[in-house]
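User: Quick sanity check before I run a bigger batch. Here is a single chain. Can you write out its predicted 3D structure?
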Amino acid sequence: MLVPFKIYKLITLILFLFSTSSFLVCSNKVCKNKRQFYLRDKFLPVTTEKTITVTHNNDLFGKLDKGFFAQIGSNPKHVDNEDYHWFDGDGMIHGLFLDKSKLTYQNKWIQTKRLQVEDKWNRKMYLYFGELKGMRGIFQILKYSFMQFFKFIPEAKGTANTAMLKWKNRLFALHEGDMPYELNIDFKNLNISTLSRFNVPNIFSTTAHPVIDKVRNLLYLYGYNNYDFLNGKFIFNIFNEKMEHIFQKNISLINNGMTHDVAFTGDHLIIPDMPLKYDFARILQEKLPMFFDKEKGITRFGIFDLNTFKDPQWVHLDENIFIFHFSRAIKRAKDFIVYACVMDDLYMEDFVDLENVENEKHIIRGDIRLKEIKIDPENNNTQINENKYIQNLDVDFNYNLDFPITSKLNPTVVYCTIFDSAAGFIRGYVKIDTSDFENSKPEMFLFEGDMHGNSEPQVVVIDNIEYILTFNNNNENSYISLIDIDEKKVNSVKIPTRIPPGFHSIYYNH
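Assistant: Done. Predicted structure follows.
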Protein backbone atom coordinates (compact mmCIF):
# COMPACT_ATOMS: atom_id res chain seq x y z
CA MET A 1 0.00 0.00 0.00
CA LEU A 2 1.41 3.40 -0.95
CA VAL A 3 2.16 5.80 1.84
CA PRO A 4 0.21 9.04 1.29
CA PHE A 5 2.19 11.98 -0.06
CA LYS A 6 1.63 14.04 3.11
CA ILE A 7 3.16 11.28 5.23
CA TYR A 8 6.22 11.27 2.96
CA LYS A 9 6.53 15.00 3.58
CA LEU A 10 6.23 14.50 7.32
CA ILE A 11 8.90 11.76 7.28
CA THR A 12 11.21 14.03 5.29
CA LEU A 13 10.77 16.90 7.72
CA ILE A 14 11.41 14.63 10.71
CA LEU A 15 14.53 13.27 8.98
CA PHE A 16 15.79 16.80 8.42
CA LEU A 17 15.10 17.95 11.97
CA PHE A 18 16.68 14.84 13.46
CA SER A 19 19.80 15.15 11.32
CA THR A 20 20.35 18.77 12.35
CA SER A 21 19.20 18.66 15.96
CA SER A 22 22.68 17.97 17.32
CA PHE A 23 24.19 21.00 15.61
CA LEU A 24 24.18 24.59 16.76
CA VAL A 25 23.92 27.64 14.57
CA CYS A 26 27.34 29.20 14.33
CA SER A 27 28.15 32.07 16.63
CA ASN A 28 31.59 33.46 17.27
CA LYS A 29 31.86 31.27 20.38
CA VAL A 30 30.85 28.13 18.48
CA CYS A 31 32.99 28.78 15.42
CA LYS A 32 36.12 29.22 17.49
CA ASN A 33 35.88 25.57 18.50
CA LYS A 34 35.28 24.18 15.03
CA ARG A 35 37.84 22.00 13.35
CA GLN A 36 37.40 23.56 9.90
CA PHE A 37 40.34 25.82 9.09
CA TYR A 38 38.18 28.33 7.21
CA LEU A 39 35.83 28.88 10.16
CA ARG A 40 38.51 29.69 12.74
CA ASP A 41 40.82 32.50 13.79
CA LYS A 42 41.19 35.15 11.08
CA PHE A 43 38.57 33.35 8.94
CA LEU A 44 36.02 33.50 11.75
CA PRO A 45 32.77 34.72 10.13
CA VAL A 46 31.46 38.17 10.99
CA THR A 47 28.06 37.84 12.68
CA THR A 48 26.68 41.39 12.48
CA GLU A 49 26.27 44.12 9.89
CA LYS A 50 27.77 47.48 10.84
CA THR A 51 28.10 51.06 9.63
CA ILE A 52 31.14 52.91 10.97
CA THR A 53 32.30 56.44 10.14
CA VAL A 54 35.96 57.32 10.63
CA THR A 55 37.34 60.86 10.33
CA HIS A 56 40.91 61.31 9.12
CA ASN A 57 43.42 63.95 8.06
CA ASN A 58 45.35 61.75 5.62
CA ASP A 59 46.00 63.87 2.52
CA LEU A 60 46.52 60.83 0.28
CA PHE A 61 43.14 59.30 1.14
CA GLY A 62 41.61 62.76 0.78
CA LYS A 63 42.48 62.62 -2.92
CA LEU A 64 40.26 59.55 -3.33
CA ASP A 65 37.23 61.77 -2.68
CA LYS A 66 33.91 60.25 -3.83
CA GLY A 67 35.50 56.85 -4.37
CA PHE A 68 34.11 53.47 -3.39
CA PHE A 69 36.23 50.44 -2.48
CA ALA A 70 34.74 47.06 -1.65
CA GLN A 71 35.85 43.53 -0.90
CA ILE A 72 33.57 40.53 -1.30
CA GLY A 73 34.01 37.10 0.18
CA SER A 74 32.64 34.04 1.92
CA ASN A 75 30.96 34.72 5.27
CA PRO A 76 28.52 31.95 6.27
CA LYS A 77 25.63 33.09 8.42
CA HIS A 78 24.17 29.70 9.33
CA VAL A 79 26.77 26.99 9.96
CA ASP A 80 26.62 23.57 11.53
CA ASN A 81 29.31 21.04 12.32
CA GLU A 82 29.80 19.66 8.81
CA ASP A 83 32.65 19.91 6.34
CA TYR A 84 32.73 23.51 5.17
CA HIS A 85 34.41 24.50 1.91
CA TRP A 86 35.65 28.10 1.84
CA PHE A 87 33.82 28.65 -1.47
CA ASP A 88 30.50 27.69 0.22
CA GLY A 89 29.86 30.67 2.49
CA ASP A 90 27.25 33.38 2.03
CA GLY A 91 28.49 36.45 0.18
CA MET A 92 29.31 39.49 2.27
CA ILE A 93 30.46 42.84 0.91
CA HIS A 94 32.73 45.06 2.98
CA GLY A 95 32.37 48.51 1.42
CA LEU A 96 34.12 51.80 2.04
CA PHE A 97 32.78 55.20 0.94
CA LEU A 98 35.73 57.59 0.69
CA ASP A 99 35.45 61.32 1.35
CA LYS A 100 38.04 64.08 1.76
CA SER A 101 38.08 63.86 5.54
CA LYS A 102 36.07 60.77 6.43
CA LEU A 103 35.58 57.13 5.55
CA THR A 104 32.28 55.31 5.95
CA TYR A 105 32.57 51.54 6.29
CA GLN A 106 29.62 49.20 5.90
CA ASN A 107 29.33 45.41 5.66
CA LYS A 108 26.24 43.66 4.30
CA TRP A 109 25.26 40.13 3.43
CA ILE A 110 24.17 39.78 -0.18
CA GLN A 111 20.49 38.92 0.07
CA THR A 112 20.49 35.82 -2.09
CA LYS A 113 17.52 33.52 -2.39
CA ARG A 114 19.53 30.89 -0.54
CA LEU A 115 20.34 33.17 2.41
CA GLN A 116 16.75 34.36 2.70
CA VAL A 117 15.49 30.77 2.92
CA GLU A 118 18.02 29.94 5.63
CA ASP A 119 17.11 33.14 7.49
CA LYS A 120 13.48 32.02 7.43
CA TRP A 121 14.38 28.64 8.96
CA ASN A 122 17.13 30.20 11.10
CA ARG A 123 19.50 27.34 10.26
CA LYS A 124 21.64 25.91 7.48
CA MET A 125 19.36 24.33 4.86
CA TYR A 126 21.51 23.81 1.77
CA LEU A 127 24.35 21.51 0.85
CA TYR A 128 27.97 22.54 1.21
CA PHE A 129 30.27 21.34 -1.52
CA GLY A 130 32.72 20.48 1.25
CA GLU A 131 30.40 17.87 2.82
CA LEU A 132 30.12 15.75 -0.34
CA LYS A 133 32.31 12.95 0.98
CA GLY A 134 31.54 9.38 2.11
CA MET A 135 28.25 7.93 3.29
CA ARG A 136 27.53 11.10 5.22
CA GLY A 137 27.80 12.99 1.96
CA ILE A 138 25.37 10.59 0.27
CA PHE A 139 22.98 11.02 3.20
CA GLN A 140 23.17 14.81 2.91
CA ILE A 141 22.47 14.65 -0.83
CA LEU A 142 19.43 12.46 -0.27
CA LYS A 143 18.18 14.61 2.59
CA TYR A 144 18.37 17.86 0.67
CA SER A 145 16.98 16.24 -2.49
CA PHE A 146 13.93 15.18 -0.50
CA MET A 147 13.65 18.68 1.00
CA GLN A 148 13.60 20.22 -2.46
CA PHE A 149 11.36 17.57 -3.98
CA PHE A 150 8.70 18.11 -1.33
CA LYS A 151 9.16 21.89 -1.61
CA PHE A 152 10.28 22.58 1.93
CA ILE A 153 13.02 24.64 0.32
CA PRO A 154 13.34 26.02 -3.23
CA GLU A 155 16.33 25.32 -5.44
CA ALA A 156 18.93 27.99 -4.71
CA LYS A 157 22.60 27.45 -5.49
CA GLY A 158 24.26 30.84 -5.54
CA THR A 159 25.90 32.67 -2.66
CA ALA A 160 27.11 35.78 -4.59
CA ASN A 161 30.43 35.60 -2.73
CA THR A 162 33.17 35.63 -5.38
CA ALA A 163 33.59 38.89 -7.29
CA MET A 164 31.91 42.10 -8.42
CA LEU A 165 31.09 43.53 -11.84
CA LYS A 166 30.50 47.20 -12.61
CA TRP A 167 28.82 47.63 -15.98
CA LYS A 168 27.25 50.90 -17.14
CA ASN A 169 26.65 52.31 -13.65
CA ARG A 170 25.29 49.01 -12.35
CA LEU A 171 27.08 46.85 -9.79
CA PHE A 172 26.61 43.09 -9.49
CA ALA A 173 27.79 40.46 -7.01
CA LEU A 174 28.90 37.28 -8.79
CA HIS A 175 29.04 33.56 -8.10
CA GLU A 176 29.57 30.83 -10.68
CA GLY A 177 26.76 28.62 -9.42
CA ASP A 178 24.08 31.23 -10.06
CA MET A 179 23.13 34.44 -11.84
CA PRO A 180 24.47 37.80 -10.60
CA TYR A 181 22.74 39.79 -7.87
CA GLU A 182 22.45 43.51 -8.51
CA LEU A 183 23.50 45.84 -5.69
CA ASN A 184 22.58 49.42 -4.94
CA ILE A 185 25.49 51.58 -3.81
CA ASP A 186 23.80 54.68 -2.43
CA PHE A 187 26.39 57.46 -2.25
CA LYS A 188 23.87 59.97 -0.90
CA ASN A 189 22.89 57.93 2.15
CA LEU A 190 26.13 55.93 2.27
CA ASN A 191 24.33 52.61 2.17
CA ILE A 192 24.73 49.23 0.44
CA SER A 193 21.73 47.05 -0.35
CA THR A 194 20.73 44.13 -2.58
CA LEU A 195 18.26 44.94 -5.35
CA SER A 196 17.45 41.60 -6.98
CA ARG A 197 18.73 38.54 -8.79
CA PHE A 198 19.47 39.21 -12.46
CA ASN A 199 17.26 36.81 -14.42
CA VAL A 200 17.72 35.86 -18.08
CA PRO A 201 15.63 33.13 -19.77
CA ASN A 202 17.56 29.89 -20.35
CA ILE A 203 20.72 31.11 -18.58
CA PHE A 204 21.21 29.58 -15.14
CA SER A 205 24.64 30.77 -14.10
CA THR A 206 27.47 33.01 -15.27
CA THR A 207 31.14 33.53 -14.58
CA ALA A 208 32.73 35.41 -11.70
CA HIS A 209 35.22 36.89 -14.22
CA PRO A 210 33.31 38.51 -17.07
CA VAL A 211 35.13 40.36 -19.84
CA ILE A 212 34.34 43.99 -20.64
CA ASP A 213 35.07 44.82 -24.27
CA LYS A 214 35.48 48.61 -24.19
CA VAL A 215 36.08 48.90 -27.95
CA ARG A 216 32.88 47.07 -28.92
CA ASN A 217 30.97 48.34 -25.86
CA LEU A 218 29.94 44.79 -25.00
CA LEU A 219 29.98 42.50 -21.96
CA TYR A 220 31.01 38.85 -22.30
CA LEU A 221 29.23 37.18 -19.41
CA TYR A 222 30.14 33.58 -20.16
CA GLY A 223 29.56 30.47 -18.07
CA TYR A 224 30.10 26.72 -18.00
CA ASN A 225 28.06 23.59 -17.32
CA ASN A 226 27.92 23.49 -13.53
CA TYR A 227 24.34 22.17 -13.51
CA ASP A 228 25.23 18.46 -13.71
CA PHE A 229 28.93 18.44 -14.75
CA LEU A 230 28.19 15.55 -17.14
CA ASN A 231 29.29 17.33 -20.32
CA GLY A 232 31.90 20.04 -20.54
CA LYS A 233 30.53 23.26 -22.02
CA PHE A 234 31.76 26.81 -22.34
CA ILE A 235 28.67 29.00 -22.73
CA PHE A 236 29.57 32.27 -24.42
CA ASN A 237 27.05 35.08 -23.80
CA ILE A 238 27.09 38.65 -25.06
CA PHE A 239 25.21 41.48 -23.34
CA ASN A 240 24.87 45.03 -24.63
CA GLU A 241 25.12 48.28 -22.69
CA LYS A 242 21.49 47.91 -21.55
CA MET A 243 22.31 44.50 -20.09
CA GLU A 244 20.24 42.81 -22.78
CA HIS A 245 21.26 39.32 -23.87
CA ILE A 246 22.01 39.51 -27.60
CA PHE A 247 24.05 36.39 -28.47
CA GLN A 248 24.92 32.91 -27.22
CA LYS A 249 27.22 30.16 -28.45
CA ASN A 250 27.86 26.81 -26.75
CA ILE A 251 31.38 25.45 -27.12
CA SER A 252 32.13 21.82 -26.27
CA LEU A 253 34.95 21.05 -23.86
CA ILE A 254 36.72 17.74 -23.27
CA ASN A 255 36.76 18.36 -19.50
CA ASN A 256 33.65 18.70 -17.37
CA GLY A 257 34.92 20.91 -14.57
CA MET A 258 35.43 24.60 -13.96
CA THR A 259 36.26 27.52 -16.28
CA HIS A 260 36.90 30.24 -13.71
CA ASP A 261 38.62 32.82 -15.94
CA VAL A 262 39.71 33.45 -19.54
CA ALA A 263 42.34 35.59 -21.25
CA PHE A 264 41.33 38.50 -23.52
CA THR A 265 43.50 40.09 -26.20
CA GLY A 266 40.97 42.56 -27.57
CA ASP A 267 39.98 40.43 -30.57
CA HIS A 268 40.22 36.95 -29.09
CA LEU A 269 39.26 35.03 -25.99
CA ILE A 270 41.69 32.33 -24.89
CA ILE A 271 39.54 29.66 -23.29
CA PRO A 272 41.24 27.18 -20.92
CA ASP A 273 40.04 23.58 -21.04
CA MET A 274 41.82 22.07 -18.04
CA PRO A 275 41.34 18.68 -16.36
CA LEU A 276 39.53 19.80 -13.23
CA LYS A 277 36.84 17.14 -13.47
CA TYR A 278 33.70 16.03 -11.66
CA ASP A 279 33.25 12.38 -10.69
CA PHE A 280 30.33 11.49 -8.40
CA ALA A 281 31.85 8.08 -7.60
CA ARG A 282 34.64 9.77 -5.60
CA ILE A 283 32.12 10.60 -2.87
CA LEU A 284 32.01 6.90 -1.94
CA GLN A 285 35.81 7.00 -1.60
CA GLU A 286 35.58 9.73 1.07
CA LYS A 287 36.77 12.33 -1.46
CA LEU A 288 35.25 15.46 -2.96
CA PRO A 289 33.70 14.84 -6.39
CA MET A 290 35.72 17.58 -8.09
CA PHE A 291 39.38 16.72 -8.71
CA PHE A 292 42.35 17.71 -10.84
CA ASP A 293 43.48 14.87 -13.11
CA LYS A 294 47.19 15.64 -13.12
CA GLU A 295 48.33 12.25 -14.43
CA LYS A 296 45.77 11.34 -17.09
CA GLY A 297 44.11 14.63 -18.01
CA ILE A 298 44.44 16.83 -21.07
CA THR A 299 45.04 20.59 -20.97
CA ARG A 300 44.42 22.81 -23.98
CA PHE A 301 43.64 26.42 -24.88
CA GLY A 302 40.96 27.48 -27.35
CA ILE A 303 41.60 30.56 -29.52
CA PHE A 304 38.14 32.10 -30.02
CA ASP A 305 37.85 34.89 -32.61
CA LEU A 306 35.43 37.61 -31.48
CA ASN A 307 35.03 38.88 -35.04
CA THR A 308 33.81 35.62 -36.55
CA PHE A 309 32.54 33.55 -33.57
CA LYS A 310 33.79 30.41 -35.29
CA ASP A 311 34.57 27.37 -33.17
CA PRO A 312 37.85 27.85 -31.28
CA GLN A 313 41.15 26.59 -32.59
CA TRP A 314 42.52 24.31 -29.88
CA VAL A 315 46.18 24.19 -28.89
CA HIS A 316 47.39 21.44 -26.56
CA LEU A 317 49.87 21.60 -23.69
CA ASP A 318 52.47 18.95 -22.91
CA GLU A 319 51.74 19.16 -19.17
CA ASN A 320 48.61 19.53 -17.10
CA ILE A 321 48.20 22.83 -15.30
CA PHE A 322 45.37 24.75 -13.72
CA ILE A 323 44.79 28.49 -13.84
CA PHE A 324 42.34 30.33 -11.62
CA HIS A 325 43.34 33.82 -12.82
CA PHE A 326 44.73 35.25 -16.02
CA SER A 327 46.43 38.61 -16.44
CA ARG A 328 47.27 40.37 -19.72
CA ALA A 329 47.24 38.65 -23.11
CA ILE A 330 48.73 39.77 -26.43
CA LYS A 331 48.13 38.73 -30.03
CA ARG A 332 51.33 38.79 -32.11
CA ALA A 333 51.84 38.03 -35.81
CA LYS A 334 51.91 34.25 -35.42
CA ASP A 335 51.31 33.51 -31.77
CA PHE A 336 49.74 34.66 -28.52
CA ILE A 337 51.43 35.63 -25.26
CA VAL A 338 49.48 35.09 -22.05
CA TYR A 339 50.43 35.91 -18.46
CA ALA A 340 48.69 33.88 -15.79
CA CYS A 341 49.17 32.50 -12.29
CA VAL A 342 49.82 28.82 -13.01
CA MET A 343 49.19 25.95 -10.58
CA ASP A 344 51.18 22.76 -11.07
CA ASP A 345 48.56 20.79 -9.16
CA LEU A 346 45.26 21.41 -7.38
CA TYR A 347 43.54 19.73 -4.44
CA MET A 348 39.98 20.97 -3.82
CA GLU A 349 40.21 19.50 -0.31
CA ASP A 350 42.72 22.24 0.55
CA PHE A 351 39.81 24.70 0.64
CA VAL A 352 38.09 22.58 3.29
CA ASP A 353 41.13 21.91 5.44
CA LEU A 354 44.46 23.57 4.77
CA GLU A 355 46.16 20.66 6.51
CA ASN A 356 44.59 18.15 4.13
CA VAL A 357 46.31 14.81 4.68
CA GLU A 358 45.43 13.60 1.18
CA ASN A 359 47.77 16.21 -0.28
CA GLU A 360 51.38 15.48 0.65
CA LYS A 361 52.32 18.92 -0.70
CA HIS A 362 49.59 20.78 1.20
CA ILE A 363 52.16 23.20 2.59
CA ILE A 364 52.77 24.43 -0.97
CA ARG A 365 49.17 24.20 -2.26
CA GLY A 366 49.82 24.11 -5.98
CA ASP A 367 53.09 26.05 -6.09
CA ILE A 368 51.36 28.93 -7.91
CA ARG A 369 53.58 31.33 -9.86
CA LEU A 370 53.05 34.02 -12.49
CA LYS A 371 54.26 32.58 -15.78
CA GLU A 372 54.46 33.53 -19.44
CA ILE A 373 52.66 31.19 -21.85
CA LYS A 374 53.41 31.33 -25.58
CA ILE A 375 50.65 29.76 -27.69
CA ASP A 376 51.44 28.86 -31.31
CA PRO A 377 48.18 27.84 -33.05
CA GLU A 378 49.88 27.14 -36.40
CA ASN A 379 52.11 24.42 -34.94
CA ASN A 380 49.78 23.35 -32.09
CA ASN A 381 52.49 24.17 -29.60
CA THR A 382 52.79 25.94 -26.26
CA GLN A 383 55.79 27.07 -24.24
CA ILE A 384 55.70 28.07 -20.58
CA ASN A 385 58.42 30.48 -19.44
CA GLU A 386 59.38 31.26 -15.85
CA ASN A 387 60.97 34.21 -14.13
CA LYS A 388 63.84 33.05 -11.91
CA TYR A 389 63.19 35.74 -9.30
CA ILE A 390 59.48 35.01 -9.01
CA GLN A 391 60.17 31.29 -8.81
CA ASN A 392 62.39 31.87 -5.77
CA LEU A 393 61.42 35.01 -3.90
CA ASP A 394 63.65 35.95 -1.00
CA VAL A 395 61.15 35.14 1.76
CA ASP A 396 61.25 32.80 4.75
CA PHE A 397 57.90 31.06 4.11
CA ASN A 398 56.35 28.86 1.42
CA TYR A 399 54.35 31.06 -0.88
CA ASN A 400 51.97 31.24 -3.82
CA LEU A 401 51.31 34.13 -6.21
CA ASP A 402 47.79 34.91 -7.39
CA PHE A 403 45.30 37.71 -8.13
CA PRO A 404 47.33 39.23 -11.03
CA ILE A 405 46.38 42.84 -11.81
CA THR A 406 47.61 44.94 -14.73
CA SER A 407 49.05 48.40 -14.05
CA LYS A 408 47.04 51.46 -15.07
CA LEU A 409 50.15 53.45 -15.93
CA ASN A 410 52.11 50.80 -17.82
CA PRO A 411 50.26 47.91 -19.54
CA THR A 412 53.34 45.67 -19.40
CA VAL A 413 53.49 45.80 -15.58
CA VAL A 414 51.63 43.17 -13.53
CA TYR A 415 51.04 43.06 -9.77
CA CYS A 416 50.54 39.76 -7.90
CA THR A 417 49.51 38.95 -4.36
CA ILE A 418 51.90 36.85 -2.21
CA PHE A 419 50.07 34.20 -0.16
CA ASP A 420 51.60 32.38 2.80
CA SER A 421 50.86 28.77 1.81
CA ALA A 422 50.80 27.37 5.33
CA ALA A 423 48.87 30.16 7.05
CA GLY A 424 46.50 30.92 4.16
CA PHE A 425 46.79 34.70 4.24
CA ILE A 426 48.40 37.50 2.23
CA ARG A 427 51.93 38.50 3.21
CA GLY A 428 52.65 41.07 0.49
CA TYR A 429 52.80 41.88 -3.23
CA VAL A 430 55.16 41.74 -6.19
CA LYS A 431 55.33 44.07 -9.19
CA ILE A 432 57.00 42.91 -12.39
CA ASP A 433 57.53 44.31 -15.88
CA THR A 434 56.61 41.56 -18.32
CA SER A 435 58.21 43.20 -21.37
CA ASP A 436 61.31 41.05 -20.64
CA PHE A 437 59.58 38.53 -18.44
CA GLU A 438 62.27 35.91 -17.97
CA ASN A 439 64.93 38.41 -16.87
CA SER A 440 62.93 41.15 -15.19
CA LYS A 441 63.61 41.61 -11.48
CA PRO A 442 60.38 42.32 -9.56
CA GLU A 443 59.79 44.84 -6.83
CA MET A 444 58.47 43.23 -3.66
CA PHE A 445 56.57 44.56 -0.67
CA LEU A 446 56.01 42.54 2.52
CA PHE A 447 53.82 43.50 5.47
CA GLU A 448 55.69 43.94 8.73
CA GLY A 449 55.06 41.97 11.91
CA ASP A 450 51.70 40.26 12.19
CA MET A 451 50.04 42.46 9.55
CA HIS A 452 48.45 40.72 6.56
CA GLY A 453 46.33 41.60 3.55
CA ASN A 454 42.70 40.62 3.13
CA SER A 455 41.86 39.94 -0.50
CA GLU A 456 42.62 40.90 -4.07
CA PRO A 457 43.73 44.56 -3.95
CA GLN A 458 43.01 47.31 -6.45
CA VAL A 459 45.41 49.63 -8.25
CA VAL A 460 44.76 53.37 -7.99
CA VAL A 461 46.69 56.34 -9.39
CA ILE A 462 47.18 59.50 -7.31
CA ASP A 463 49.31 62.36 -8.67
CA ASN A 464 50.71 59.99 -11.32
CA ILE A 465 51.91 57.51 -8.69
CA GLU A 466 50.45 54.01 -8.56
CA TYR A 467 49.31 52.53 -5.26
CA ILE A 468 47.87 49.25 -4.05
CA LEU A 469 44.54 49.87 -2.28
CA THR A 470 43.48 47.15 0.16
CA PHE A 471 42.00 46.23 3.50
CA ASN A 472 44.55 44.69 5.84
CA ASN A 473 44.69 43.46 9.44
CA ASN A 474 46.87 42.49 12.31
CA ASN A 475 45.72 40.47 15.32
CA GLU A 476 43.90 43.46 16.79
CA ASN A 477 42.87 46.03 14.18
CA SER A 478 41.70 46.50 10.59
CA TYR A 479 42.93 49.18 8.20
CA ILE A 480 42.43 50.57 4.74
CA SER A 481 45.86 51.11 3.19
CA LEU A 482 47.54 52.72 0.20
CA ILE A 483 50.84 50.98 -0.55
CA ASP A 484 53.60 52.39 -2.76
CA ILE A 485 55.50 49.24 -3.70
CA ASP A 486 58.43 51.08 -5.29
CA GLU A 487 59.08 53.24 -2.22
CA LYS A 488 57.91 50.61 0.32
CA LYS A 489 55.65 53.21 1.93
CA VAL A 490 52.24 52.58 3.52
CA ASN A 491 49.51 55.09 4.31
CA SER A 492 46.75 53.64 6.49
CA VAL A 493 43.55 54.63 8.26
CA LYS A 494 42.29 52.44 11.10
CA ILE A 495 38.80 50.95 10.84
CA PRO A 496 37.56 49.83 14.29
CA THR A 497 36.07 46.48 13.34
CA ARG A 498 37.31 43.08 12.18
CA ILE A 499 37.29 42.49 8.42
CA PRO A 500 37.99 38.82 7.61
CA PRO A 501 39.75 37.66 4.42
CA GLY A 502 37.76 37.72 1.19
CA PHE A 503 38.18 36.95 -2.49
CA HIS A 504 37.96 39.80 -5.01
CA SER A 505 37.54 43.57 -4.77
CA ILE A 506 36.52 46.64 -6.77
CA TYR A 507 37.25 50.37 -6.78
CA TYR A 508 35.58 53.15 -8.73
CA ASN A 509 34.67 56.84 -8.49
CA HIS A 510 31.12 58.06 -8.10
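Residues 1-32 have pLDDT under 50 and may be disordered.

User: Great, the batch can go ahead then.
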